[in-house]
Write a structure and sequence with these properties.
With about 425 residues, the chain is of the alpha/beta class. The chain is built from 14 helices and twelve strands. The two termini are about 35 Å apart.
Length: about 425
Amino acid sequence: MPNLFKRFHRVEGARGRTVEGTGIGLALVEDLVKLHGGSVRAESQLDAGSTFTVSMPLGVAHLPSQQIRSLGKAARSTGAGRALTEEALRWSEPSIATSGVCGERLNAAATDVGRRRILLVDDNSDMRQYVTNILAPEFDVEAVTNGVLALESLQGPIPDLVLTDVMMPEMDGFGLLKALRTDARAQSIPVIMLSARAGEEAYVEGLRAGADDYLIKPFSARELVARVVSNIELAQLRQKLARKEEERRSVKELERQWRLFITALSHTPDFSYVFDLERRFTYVNEALLGLLNRPRAEVLGKQFLELGYPPDFADKLDRQIQAVLDTRTPVLDESALTGQGGGIRHYEYIFVPVAGTDGTVEGVAGSAREVTQRRKVEQDLRTANAELEQFAYVASHDMQEPLRMVNIYTQLLLKRYGETANADVQ
């Protein structure tokens, strides 16, 4: 307890969560509170819980004048503060109004088929409350704390989507996902995994485990709603297509379902595409048309070089698509390209085989998304970690040097006076 607010302090052998922090969170809290003239204290009882109390005086009269800042008119007019405030209020307001395209799509879905049911699995109470507040206006949300309780809930009505954290006690998100994919009743439920683990490795691990989507914390309310709506709609389309195939419905009905599927893909922010066996575009969504800055008629039926792709990059993509056709296995990769403004933009993409009703591969489909900002954050984190390691090394060296000198002089004194000194001196 006396070391609770010290930076980087660790207690060896103590019980903790699966993923530990860096040891600076509470230290930052104390620093911020002190800047406002306040104080923070903690009270804790083993196996019973902890209470943190923050006290800060109202007003600004107690603060030094040089520490008081006010936003100017230009800063207030940008709208950034308003957006951040609205997002922060979602943690406390019981009802969140969805707006824009997502809200319209949700309302239309609710009118047609009623409210959808979401199973939320997260051991953090704040995160459960936050996500529930966002989704509750349009969905029936059931929240549980781990995978075991989630599986017990699935003995009742099957939800339309499972939203699960990765790190949880008793059964984590991957254990829950494996159980769902082996359960005949639940294997078709779309699953979105929530995790603070960023980067390609975590994203690929989630998709390979069978997740339909992977959302990295922290995320915005609009992004969460968009992912939930898109995955439910795509799951509904897959289910409808499966039912129509089983019932041997007409080709006209299948074409209608295909148009609905294309409509859903056209409004996703990711780049979606389909190629034929000659690596010609047979479908591109609106996002990719915007990136290429070409009308659809100029893109369909064309290959990469005809659309101005760099020759080396076009050759790489051609070889990867051919590998998918030959091996019938997906290819996941990432490339860095020069954007229109001259900066380097990073994109991750995937190619997957498209099989016909007879099992033969008829083409290749895939999607891509820009990850420039994510790569920048990862690089900044690596730089910060390197600086922290350097600081720790220097601090350790500075502490060890005085102790080494004391030890040397102690040995010299014992060697010189050890035979004549009395027991107290020794």
